[in-house]
Specification:
about 750 residues, alpha+beta, 8-stranded mixed β-sheet, 5-stranded mixed β-sheet, disordered N terminus
Length: about 750
């Protein structure tokens, strides 16, 4: 974002008035461009972000790198020199490390620079794709020679040369067929497949330089910064294995990660945060503190909760359950699997198919069609032309299926691959089977629909800590934070239109309470996710979406939280409010979510009898303050670096003896603590007191009670915290009471105040 400070208001007004007058005299069509401060400019049709920046001030023209435009319901970032699409709102992006949009554009361009550097050093490289990420970028490459950390300095040196040349990024477009012919001549199956998946009648390319056909160029949607010299700070960070479109049966690729900033100081700070993140890695701390485990024999992405980790999870669940019951929720339990028709009705199948475990069909016919479909999808996902061998295999399967179970309508072996996939889907649409559920909501819908409902019962609030499954690609699985099986702290509310606003407010406030009061996580932003009308991934009528978006905006506004609206971030069935939390080292995590849904109640034909004795359709709210228990606990491990607040700690108190003379009293202290429902461990070994205390501190135990002969005689305990601070002697009763206060207040007062 930029703050516009022209030389003077009179100067700006005169300049704009004279420009507009000249345009009118020439009868050039005018566009209206609304700026962030509310002012509206009139510019010529075909004007660019650079033109608007120049009209405002010379300094802004020098610092502008791109533009964020909103036109209609669409929002996008465009190149500085791309024509404005019509009347629009425009935010001029400048070279700022504080603006995520500016960094997005910079990092996309840095990915191109890195790709060129790799191609220079390794000419046999085949480029795949290179997107910008929240904290950097990557580029997937197909290269027989493995890239290693030892190659990073060479890649960075080559990037520095490209940046020093300060070459411009130039976009050009070709009609689809001409662009496809160009890519076929170049022979990269990856770029051909990417182009085939692209929408529109034109394909866009970017040249890093002025010499098209000589300088580096790449198939790309953009946007990009004006020139390479704006990349002032960058770092190649790591390399890992990946697979094209996530297909592990395809040729393995190499994914090279990097990051970039406009200023070196920002890069230095980012690298420090990465080192701190490595120290806080939940996978390392979770193993050290014995909180959770994973096992290849159990399955990738499936978390085993160890006893100490289960304590953390249980305490969180207990807290939220108590708060839900206060608000009138009913807790339910539902199966982790369901009939395919349940998910067909909801739209989860086949909507989530790419990230689901395969459906389990009941009949041999269904299983055979599924196998043929999987083969056809696999061939299609690999891109390029279908080989004779691949085509023969598909034809053989389709022919065998129809010989065994009779003709299938519209299914002919000679059909094009896309049509064959479509018809195989159609053939499966009537086959019965089961699916590991990707979401809990269809089950809760059936609980609501299990008997007739009256308006007097509404709102119905159903809560469950329900296990769901998503088949994340193996390269994307990461400990607890990205798992294939996870528990959602799910609830679904069914209410009338009159009740919607207050129920939304209550759910938003519950999420705020969980984050702020229970966990002290007050640094967050709220995102209102709305539908992108240009996409076809949404279900339901425009009228229902309008109602839902109006309700979600009103709730966000009245709750008092600061929020931003982002198109394309809605769930497929309705708009939502997401809580994006920043942890103690500045990383952002999406946690709680609240969603409004007019569509699923209609799809399932839900109803209640209103005061007019007629049937009405309820409105549904989806709500999950934590998101998933696995991910939430993984984030907490990293946020607290394993040093949990007292109410969550698996071991809250450690009792250690100075010598065997105080052993009997130490055991009595330990028993008293456990009887007081405090989680305590006892160490009466013959080791010296120093190693004993160190062991408990390494285990992140909140308080260490040292018991010697003096404490035994006085019936006191010497209280130490895990940071090494001695809080002094106090009676055991006083310590227990202080612990209870610290637990009940979630750390706002407690033992430290007693010391």
């Amino acid at each position: 974002m930029c703050v516009i400070k022209p030389c003077s208001a009179f100067c700006l007004v005169t300049r704009l008035r004279d420009s507009a007058a000249a345009i009118v005299r020439l009868e050039i069509p005018l566009l209206k461009v609304k700026l962030p401060d509310g002012d509206t400019l009139q510019v010529a049709d075909g004007a660019t972000t650079a033109d608007v920046a120049g009209m405002i001030s010379p300094s802004l023209a020098r610092s502008a790198i791109a533009g964020r435009i909103n036109h209609g319901e669409e929002s996008e970032i465009i190149d500085l020199l791309s024509p404005l699409p019509g009347d629009c709102s425009l935010t001029i992006l400048t070279a700022s490390d504080k603006n995520p949009d500016s960094l997005y554009v910079l990092r996309h361009s840095a990915a191109h620079v890195m790709a060129e550097a790799v191609c220079r050093l390794f000419p046999e490289t085949k480029l795949v794709y290179g997107p910008s990420l929240e904290d950097g970028f990557y580029y997937d490459i197909d290269l027989p020679q493995p890239i290693s950390v030892e190659d990073f300095p060479r890649i960075e040196a080559e990037m520095s040369l490209i940046i020093k040349e300060d070459r411009p990024f130039r976009r050009y477009e070709l009609p689809r067929e001409e662009g496809m012919a160009k890519l076929r001549d170049e022979g990269s199956r990856y770029k051909i497949d990417n182009a085939e998946r692209a929408e529109g009648d034109m394909l866009s390319f970017y040249v890093t330089g002025e010499r098209r056909g000589q300088d580096f160029e790449d198939l790309c949607r953009g946007p990009h910064i004006p020139r390479t010299g704006l990349i002032r700070a960058f770092k190649v960070r790591q390399v890992s294995r990946s697979y094209y479109r996530g297909d592990i049966n395809d040729r393995p690729l190499q994914r090279i990660y990097g990051t970039a900033f406009f200023e070196k100081s920002s890069l230095d700070e980012h690298l420090k945060r990465l080192e701190e993140a490595k120290r806080r890695d939940h996978r390392v701390i979770g193993r050290e503190l014995d909180l959770f485990a994973t096992s290849e024999q159990v399955g990738t992405g499936l978390v085993l909760w160890m006893p100490k980790g289960t304590i953390i999870r249980t305490e969180i669940q207990k807290y939220l359950t108590e708060e839900m019951i206060k608000l009138g929720y009913d807790m339910v339990i539902s199966p982790q699997i369901g009939q395919l028709d349940l998910f067909r009705t909801s739209g989860h199948y086949p909507y989530y198919e790419d990230s689901q475990y395969p459906a389990m069909f009941e009949t041999d016919r269904g299983k055979a069609i599924q196998s043929a479909l999987q083969l056809a999808q696999h061939v299609r996902a690999r891109g390029g032309s279908v080989t004779d061998k691949q085509h023969s295999a598909i034809v053989a399967m389709v022919t065998a299926i129809q010989e065994a179970w009779g003709p299938i309508e519209g299914l002919r072996p000679e059909l094009p691959l896309d049509k064959l996939v479509e018809n195989l889907y159609a053939a499966l649409s009537t086959e019965q089977g089961y699916l590991l559920r990707p979401m809990n909501c269809p089950h809760h819908i059936r609980i609501y629909a299990s008997r007739p409902r009256s308006y007097r019962e509404l709102p119905v609030r159903l809560g469950e800590f329900g296990m769901v499954y998503r088949f994340e690609q193996s390269g994307e699985v990461s400990g607890m934070i990205r798992a294939r099986g996870f528990t959602q702290d799910d609830a679904h509310l069914f209410c009338t239109a009159d009740q919607l606003h207050i129920e939304l407010l209550t759910t938003v406030n519950l999420t705020r309470q969980v984050l702020e009061v229970a966990l002290g996580m007050k640094d967050y932003r709220v995102r209102v996710g709305l539908r992108d009308a240009s996409s076809d991934k949404w279900v339901g009528s425009a009228e229902s979406w309008h109602k839902a978006e109006t309700a979600i905006r009103a709730a966000a506004r009245e709750s008092g939280v600061e929020y931003t609206e982002e198109r394309g971030e809605a769930a497929f069935y309705g708009p939502k409010i997401d809580f994006i939390v920043r942890d103690c080292i500045g990383r952002s995590w999406q946690l709680g979510t609240v969603q409004v849904d007019y569509n699923l109640p209609e799809r399932f034909e839900l109803s209640y009898i209103g005061p007019d004795n007629a049937a009405h359709t309820p409105i549904m709210i989806h709500r999950a303050p934590f998101g998933s228990m696995e991910r939430f606990v993984g984030i907490l491990i990293e946020h607290f670096a394993g040093a949990f607040p007292l109410w969550l700690s698996p071991v809250q108190v450690g009792v250690v003896t100075v010598s065997e003379k105080s052993e009997a009293y130490a055991k009595a202290v330990h028993d008293t603590l456990k009887n007081a429902a405090l989680r305590a461990e006892l160490d009466v070994s013959s080791e010296k007191i120093g190693p004993k205390k160190h062991r408990f501190r390494a285990a992140k135990v909140n308080y260490i009670l040292v018991v010697g002969e003096r404490e035994a005689a006085e019936r006191t305990v010497n209280v130490n915290d895990r940071d090494g601070l001695t809080l002094g002697n106090m009676t055991l009763e006083r310590f227990i009471e202080a612990c209870r206060e610290e637990i009940n207040t979630k750390g706002r007062s407690g033992v430290a105040a007693q010391g």
